[in-house]
Amino acid sequence: MRVLVVEDEQLLADAVATGLRREAMAVDVVYDGAAALERIGVNDYDVVVLDRDLPLVHGDDVCRKIVELGMATRVLMLTASGDVSDRVEGLEIGADDYLPKPFAFSELIARVRALGRRTSVPLPPVLERAGIKLDPNRREVFRDGKEVQLAPKEFAVLEVLMRSEGAVVSAEQLLEKAWDENTDPFTNVVRVTVMTLRRKLGEPPVIVTVPGSGYRI
User: Exposed, middle or buried, 88 (CB in 10 Å: 0-12/13-18/19+)?
Assistant: First the structure.
């Protein structure tokens, strides 16, 4: 899942990004509304965690722009105000969900995951294919009933492949969904991660390389 965190309190923004990355999400971070508009014009995000009171461009205007562009991106709006009128206003602007500060990080994670599920074709909470069972919420993977321990990026790549339901996923798509914008697009990190993932999942191999196209399960 690709997430953009937009928050002018840099310590909070970086803490949220770190926590989301630990949940195997690809996360970009910006600290003002103008930078947010720039990012959404370049990258496709599943979810934007958007502070409402932003410098340069207000969070409301960022949300309006996402709606105006007709993007599939879901918006989780954050604010220091917990008044019902503020929540209603944020939702009417186009936000998909609303979370007042301070918030429990576990709730933030749950809300981001719930919104991420709404950006694509609905799938069951636990993904199953080719003897693999993947639970995104518990971050657990089993192969033929045996648990497989994966690093966050390995888990992220496997989740993208599982969600594709047999369709071929290109290396570029994997790079976009599982890594943030600071990753060198010419790196071989996708190939190396897929190789490690194949080894950890065991025999017989379930990740197929489609020459010139990408990978599928």
Answer: exposed
